[in-house]
Design a protein that fits this description.
1 helix, mainly beta, 43% strand, five-stranded antiparallel beta sheet, 113 residues
Length: 113
């Protein structure tokens, strides 16, 4: 049983920034294209966090050319290089799926002061 704890504990990343649902974040993702690797930034609002521990994921949404784009990132993935918090959001919900039906200024989240 102790060996299982060591393996599981080794997979969890250290020094992750604390971000919550409603925050605007910039996620740097390692993209593999053939033999080459590059880092791509994806910036948007965190609309959901799921699970916890090793399998924790978070969903980031942004509008790109008038089309809503969502990506789900595992927190402990080796492809997620870093997560920067751009601004803190003030929300009263655990999931912000209602933002999917809104466009423009109605899809904004208030900033936490």
């Amino acid at each position: 049983m102790d060996a299982m704890k060591i393996i599981t504990a080794g997979m969890i990343k250290e020094n992750q920034p604390k971000f919550e649902v409603g925050d605007t974040v910039r996620v740097s993702v390692r993209i593999k294209e053939g033999e080459r690797e590059r880092i791509q930034a994806f910036e948007g609002t965190v609309i959901a966090k799921k699970h916890g521990g090793v399998a924790e994921t978070f969903t980031v949404r942004r509008a790109s050319h008038g089309v809503g784009v969502e990506r789900v990132f595992p927190v402990n993935s080796p492809f997620v290089e870093k997560v920067e918090v751009i601004r803190r959001g003030k929300v009263r919900r655990a999931k912000l799926f209602y933002l999917r039906g809104r466009t423009g200024k109605a899809a904004k989240v208030k900033e936490q002061i």
